[in-house]
Structure formats: C-alpha cells, structure tokens
DNA sequence: TTGTACGCGTTATCAC
DNA sequence: GTGATAACGCGTACAA
C-alpha cells in the first residue's frame, strides 16, 4: 500500500492526487481539468483513480487566481422574494448550470445606495458577468454606479442590464411595451371603451412602458384611457387606489388595468369588498401571469411574461464572449384572456 | 508625479496600490483588509488614497486561496422559481449581507440526481456553509449524498439542512407540524367537523408533517378527517383532486385543507367552476400565506409561514462557528383566518 | 508526452 | 510599526 498521506484536514489537493498517482502536478492538472494537451492513457487512469479515491475536487478559488478569470456570474435583483424575480433567477440558474457557471446572488431591496455598495462588493469576485435585474428609474443611474459598471467592464466583466441599456451595453428587455400594447388592443377588440390605469411610481421604466404600451394599444383599438394613477407596485397600493377610484365613482363597464398582477389582485379585492362584481360590473386586467391568476376572482386577464426565459437569455448574454443585441429575437409575451374581462356586447 | 503604472488591463492589484502609496505589500494589505496589526496614520492615509485613486478592490479568490477559507455560503433549493423558496432566499441573502458573506445559488429542480451533482460542484467553492433547502422525502437520502455531505463537513463546511436533520447535523425547521396543528384546532373551534385533506406526494416530509399536524389539531378539537388524498403539490393537482372529490360527492359544510396555498387556490377554483361557493358552501384552507391569499375567493384562510426568517436563521446557522440546535426558539407561525372559513353555526 | 519552475493576488510569519 | 518572503492551490510556458 502507499504511505499514509491522507490530507490530515481539509480537502485533498491536486498535489495529493499527483503524489498518490505518482505523477507530476502538471500531469495531474492536465487530466483533471480541461487541457488541450494529451496524456497517456495509463497515466490518465492512475490520476483518475487517485482523484476518485481521495475525493478530489478542484479548488475553484485557486483555479480562478491561477487562470485570472472565474466562472462566476453575479445576479443582482431588486427583490428576490418577488415571484417575477424568482422566475428570473430560475432562468439564470438554469442557463448557468448548462454553461458550467456558478451564480452568486444579491438583493438591493430597491435601494440605489445598497445597489452601489453591492456592485462594489461583487467586483471582488471578478465575475465573468453581472446581470443587473434592478428596477430602474429613468435617469436615476448615479454617476458612481456608471463608474462602477465601466470599471467592471474594463476588467472584462460582461455587464448585462435588464431593460433598455445604454448604447454599447449588453441589454435585454422583456418587452413590456409590446406586451401591454397587445393587451390593450385585445381588450379594445373585446369591446371595452373606457379604461383606467393603476401604475407604479412615476418614472419607473417597467411601469411606464406598460402604461404607455397599454394606452397605445387601447387607443388604437378605439378605446380611451380616462386616467392614470401612480402608486407603489404592490397589492396594497392596487387595493387602495382602486378604493379611491370607486369613491370617486366608476362607471359600469369600465376596465381597470393594473401594471402587475399583484396590483390587479388588489384591485379585484377592492372591487369585491365594495360589492362590485369583477368581470360583470367592472373589468380588471393585469400583467405577468403569476401562478394564482386563474384563482383570482373569475380568473385574471393578463399578459404572460416569460421571466425565466429573460433570465436564461441574460445569462447567455453574460457568458458569451461576443454578443450582439441585434441577434436577439423578442421574447414571446402572450395575452391571456380570462373571466375578469369577458366580451362586452354593444 | 508618480510614473505611469496604470494597470494596463484588468483590475488594480494590491501590488499596484502598494507601489502607488510607496509602501510594502504587507502594509497595504494590513490597512486595506482587516488586520489586528496597527499601522501609522500617515501610511494608512496614503494607502487609502492610493486604493481610492486606483479603484482597488480585493480579489476575493486570491484572498480565499491565501486565507484557506472563503466567505461563501452556498444555497441549494428545490425550485427558486417557487414563491416560498424565493422568500427563503430573500432571508438568506439578507443575513449574508449582514454577515459579509456571498451567496451562491443552485437549483435542483427536485431531481435527486441533479442534487448530488450540484453538491459536488459546490464543493469546489470550498464554501463556509451549505444550506440545503431541498424538498426531502423520508428515507430517500442516497448514501452518495450523505458521503458528499460528510466530506463537506470534513473540510470545515457547515452543512445546514432545512427540516429535520440527522443527529449531529445543523438543521432548522419551519414548524410545519405545529403550524398545521394550530390551524386544525382553530378550524375545529370555528365549528367545522368534517375535513378532507389534499396533500403532496406520499413521503414528502413537509407535506406529511402538515397533514399530520392538521389532523391532530382538528381531531383534538372534535373534528374528523374523512380522507387524505395525495398528489403533486401544485395548483393544478389541487384543482384536479378537488374535482374528483366533488364528483364523488361532498357534503355541504365540509372543509378542504390543501397542504399549500397553491393547492388550495386550485381547490377554490375547482369549487367555483363547479358552481359551489367557497366559504358558504364548502370551506377551504391552505398553508404558507402567499401574497395573493387575500385575493383568492373570499380570502383564503391559511398559516403564515415565515420562510424569510427561516432563510435568515439558516444563514446564521451556516456561518456561526458554533451553533447549537437547542438555542433555537421555534419560528412564529400564525393562523390567518379569512373568508374561506367563516364561523359555522351549530 | 512528461516534468520543472514560475506566476496569479493575497495572507501571514518572520526578522528588522 | 514595517518590510521581505514563504506559503496558498492551481495553470502553464518552457525545457527535457
């Protein structure tokens, strides 16, 4: 038997494997990790056996320092507890596994200050890519953040921002505007003529795009958007604003569009609590197609937003060495009509 | 002025900073990264200035190799797209930021084979902790996985499993059983006497615990659990099984408990589609308290499960050097009664 | 094809 | 207090 050289503590190192197999460090490295160089079959077997026996797994940190580049993609999101971001992360992680990358995740809690701090921290990982899934407000990108991002880019990190990016930046967008436009058009076609929109805070890109798209589609179809209210993008905000709307008086047959399903869910509850019937009395539509859409009221009409696909693509964009925006085909958003917006006669 | 030694490409290194500040590597290291050693104020200032000027950020990989230990916690979940796991991740990430750790995430897709592969991969990171948020089936832990875990533990990685762990393992559980028991008791108190349970696949710990807890609490309160049906833990499964139940005939005043809110949401829709009225005709209760609970039917009675707290605690358990199970106080699960289970007279 | 030796960026142990 | 210098675990010219 071979001598006792079991790694007293800690994991087996490449050195251990080489010794156990009776080969040089270099040879062991070549067989265990991808190298173009060839190594004799007999050696290969011995090394593999030794690695297996010792339970060797390459130390990724050491590999990263040696190679000068890591197999890490950092994901920064506004709120990982949010369903949509969860699905986004799901797509990112799926892509990462395929591509052999590791995903690190951080959460800004929608706080720009924290975002900046986190991006700084992330730089330490020397990630190959950074996916910025943060709710962006128009023109709110601080210079400091931009500096960080260009610094990141300078060290070879592919920064991909979700939504519209600056020119020259890798970016990929969900298609909020187009999806909402299709929704507006469809609802106009269904016979709705009066709509009210409950959106997120003014300036929030995703919200603004959805509002703009919906209004365009609905107007083109012959409808009129009577009002746009701004609030938080939450269920409670939807509920609260809807109650205000009801207090102000809301004509029967009016359609309320909430910029997200969560908002729409709040709206539906507000209507119900006020004794109005969703769908027959007042119509409601949302955006996202969260899992419980079918179970809200008579079923919530919405737009299916493929956040997982978005995440998957973002990862590809973060990982590929060359990437061109133009090659991207738009994601497929699908209008899903349910009971909350039945066809209107008339 | 100092010479031109701008790092041609890539990030500034500690070496660069030291040279720019005109001090030694060691000194630069001491001021920039935590060291107990003191360094003169004048030097400290110069180093800080140089670091700032060069935009220095420590290379974490290099730090990890040098220190022999990383500041990484790996999170392995069954499905990050699931709301509950999203909230879990949220808590983990929050704790990690506090503790100065980085979180890497991977997704098993509920596939044991993939789980094993991923744990192997994760070993490469030499993480300080590993959080296993995977849906566990009783007795399904393969020997191979156990081996991996002990290997991990041997290299100093704190493995913390969510749910009931093996003795000697760090584990922390949500309290499914207790929560469900409280729910059962509360519903019995509200006057319900007949219940049917729609659970997940047989053997799934979380599901079994909830079923067992509910039955115990309900029975103790004077109720009877007429039947337990097993299926997937999904909305569609809830819907399908509920339809079967209806086809078989369901007495008015019966209560249906779905082991998760998603299942319960499906149940509620099945009832509605069959012309039954949730709450007045048949009662429904769930578990988790997902965001749209209030907007499903007349509001879904459920148990608020603090997944984010669970995640936060899991991170603490993964990070702390010594940790004892006994010190953990149970998480606070709260029964939330809503319209889907009004008080029954009689 | 195989092995030697140096470098990656950082920490830590020593002398000074 | 400060600065050389040897690790850390691994990749990879380069030489053999």
Please explain how this structure is put together.
With 346 residues, chain A is of the alpha/beta class. In chain A, the strands form 3 sheets. In chain A, strands 2-1-3-4-5 form a 5-stranded parallel β-sheet, sandwiched between helices. In chain A, strands 7-6-8-9 form a 4-stranded parallel β-sheet, sandwiched between helices. Chain A has a two-stranded antiparallel sheet with strand order 10-11. The first copy, chain A, starts with 13 loop residues before the first helix and ends in a 10-residue tail after the last strand. The first copy, chain A, contains 12 helices and 11 strands. In chain A, helix 11 (261-273) links the parallel strand 8 (255-258) and strand 9. In chain A, helix 2 (25-32) crosses helix 3 (41-54) and helix 5 (83-99) packs across helix 12 (307-319). Chain A is 43% helix and 15% strand. Chain A folds into 3 domains: 14-58, 434 Repressor (Amino-terminal Domain) (Orthogonal Bundle), CATH 1.10.260; 70-174 and 309-327, 3-Layer(aba) Sandwich (Rossmann fold); 176-304, 3-Layer(aba) Sandwich (Rossmann fold), CATH 3.40.50. At the A-B interface, helix 4, helix 5, strand 2, helix 6 and helix 11 of A face helix 4, helix 5, strand 2, helix 6 and helix 11 of B. Chain A binds a DNA duplex (16 and 16 nucleotides) through residues 13-15, 23-27, 29-30, 33, 35, 37-40, 43, 58-59, 61-68. Chains A, B: InterPro entries: HTH_LacI (IPR000843), LacI/GalR-like_sensor (IPR046335), Lambda_DNA-bd_dom_sf (IPR010982), Peripla_BP_I (IPR028082). Chains A, B: Residues 12-67 form the HTH lacI-type domain. Chains A, B: Pfam families: LacI, Peripla_BP_3. Chains A, B: This is LacI family DNA-binding transcriptional regulator. Chains A, B: GO terms for molecular function: DNA binding.
